[in-house]
């Protein structure tokens, strides 16, 4: 499996950049052949489509990034899988997103927002944002899962 991860790369601290970078590093750690690219860098993405020939392009963002995360890869024959957050209301791109075989979202709430705003939900799967457990291990916390994932409870579940 070859995955091109399209996000705010190189990552700035926080937000979507961290989400994308954790995905990219996690894929590489699992032995999956992956490359990272800035979601707005059209020429660089085109080069990766031709040179790397990814099986999928996973784009990290929100519905408003659909031109960068979905339409651009599709224009070059690549299979786009957006991993989306929500900003409260999806104002556009319902038909484009509904036609995708898979949309990843960060929570059940995000899925409900997209369904409320016109998607059927048939192609939406929840994939929570991961965390860097090595950071927690270095910090000396006993419960690595909750230390590495702020907002999680003692058992590592979100609170």
Number of domains: 2
Arithmetic mean of pLDDT: 89
CATH top level label of the largest domain: Alpha Beta
Helix content: 25-40%
Major sheet strand order:
2-1-3-4-5-6
Characterise the protein shown here.
- The chain is 39% helix and 19% strand.
- The chain is α/β, with parallel strands linked by helices and 159 residues long.
- Strand 3, helix 3 and strand 4 form a beta-alpha-beta unit.
- The longest helix has 15 residues, at 15-29.
- Residues 144-148 and 150-159 have low confidence and may be disordered.
Can you give keywords for this protein?
Rossmann fold; alpha/beta; 7 helices; single chain; disordered C terminus; 159 residues; six-stranded parallel sheet; 2 domains; 19% strand; globular; 39% helix
Topology:
Layout: E1 2-7, H1 15-29, E2 33-38, H2 42-52, E3 56-62, H3 66-75, E4 80-85, H4 94-98, E5 103-105, H5 108-116, E6 124-126, H6 133-139, H7 144-148
Parallel strand pairs: 1-2, 1-3, 3-4, 4-5, 5-6
